[in-house]
């Protein structure tokens, strides 16, 4: 995995690296490898993950087809340089 550092902005590069590692599941894998996991526990965990993935895929498919309502999105207030000034 490679992250480019632009304008010596190491904080931004670290933020990008952490986000990529999170997306790849590296942190989850490191946490699992901290301690030994019995083969029986591993099978149970992997089966539960498979069920979770299957249910999530079915839920998304039902939402796309309009069978169930999609969750309501909440708008986050914008902050920073692009935000509109607050009325006072």
Which secondary structure elements does this structure contain, and how are they paired or packed?
Layout: H1 10-24, H2 26-33, H3 39-65
Note down, in words, how this protein is organized:
It comes from Xanthobacter oligotrophicus. Keywords: Ribonucleoprotein, Ribosomal protein. This protein is an all-alpha fold and 88 residues long. The protein has two domains: 1-35, no CATH class; 37-67. It is built from three helices and no strands. It has helices spanning 10-24, 26-33, 39-65. The chain is flat, with a radius of gyration of 20 Å.
Give me a quick take on this structure.
This protein is mostly helical and 88 residues long.
The H/E string reads HHH
Tell me what portion of residues adopts beta-strand conformation.
under 5%
Q: What is the 3D form?
A: flat
The low-confidence parts are: none
Q: Total domains, how many?
A: 2
Main traits of this protein?
mainly alpha, 3 helices, 57% helix, flat
């Amino acid at each position: 995995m490679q992250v480019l550092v632009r304008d010596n902005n190491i904080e931004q590069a670290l933020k990008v690296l952490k986000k990529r590692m999170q997306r790849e599941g590296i942190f989850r894998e490191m946490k699992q490898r901290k301690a030994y996991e019995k083969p029986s526990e591993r099978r149970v965990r992997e089966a539960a993950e498979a069920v979770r993935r299957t249910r999530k895929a079915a839920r998304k498919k039902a939402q796309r087809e309009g069978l169930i309502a999609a969750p309501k999105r909440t708008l986050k207030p914008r902050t920073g340089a692009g935000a509109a000034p607050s009325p006072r």
